[in-house]
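Input record (one chain):
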Amino acid sequence: MSPAGSEASFRQLTVDLPPSLWQALEAAVEASGETVEHLVRVALSERLGIGDHGTLFQVSTAAALVEGLYKGVVTVAELSDHGDFGIGTLAGLDGEMVALDGRFYQARADGAVVEVADSARCPYAVVTRFTPVENERRVIDEATDLAGLHAHLDGLRESANAFYAIRIDGRFDSVLTRSVSPTAEGVPLAEAAASQTEMEFSDVKGTLVGFWSPGFLGGALVSGYHLHFLSDDRQSAGHLLACSGRSLAAVVRRESEFRLSLPESAAFLRADLSRDPSEALRAAESKP
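The corresponding structure, as predicted from the sequence alone:
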């Protein structure tokens, strides 16, 4: 058995299999329609006790958030069973959430950043398992603004039809974030975001945490880039609106699976989520 280096997102593994195991693998491929690579990754993840490895796990939908469904439907402890890295919000739309290295943080509208209790509940979140390795890192020499950063990240993605987890570490010349205040159930996200609190930081070391998602799932998710910021001293955080920096270390990792956990609350089951949320999301997630 011999591992070999490959592209930024994966390493290759060559292994000899006995005929009986190979035949069983071929039969599983034919029965499931899945690839050999996917079945092997799942089997290894289960055997090594790292379930959901390479899986993007999302609770609720972007459309539900846009329509004002803010009641918590999952605890942070339950989220951590599916990932140690991600973004979201807390019950009642109480600030921005960012998960990094297995710890979950809340960026409040008053500027405070606190670690979130396991019992805290989330109405919407996206997490995965993410431990970067050195050969995955790519240096972004300079990003003068958020559009420039996105352009660099575009060059690190192989496809517009896959999900990507993104981690960017470094010293940022400037960072502009926002956080939302607790909001009553049923108030549309665009209305809640109109009173957001913006915070600007200069010459700050920290990490951008987030994802790039394709647009073919419509209102299920936030398509394109969705990034949150967390400073190294854990004193500054929020939803990213703008930034600039140099010599930033980026890891862009393709996720092989997407799992969506839908709320079972009466509010969700009865809500009209048929409207296209893209325009409302664009207004709520970007700088005014």
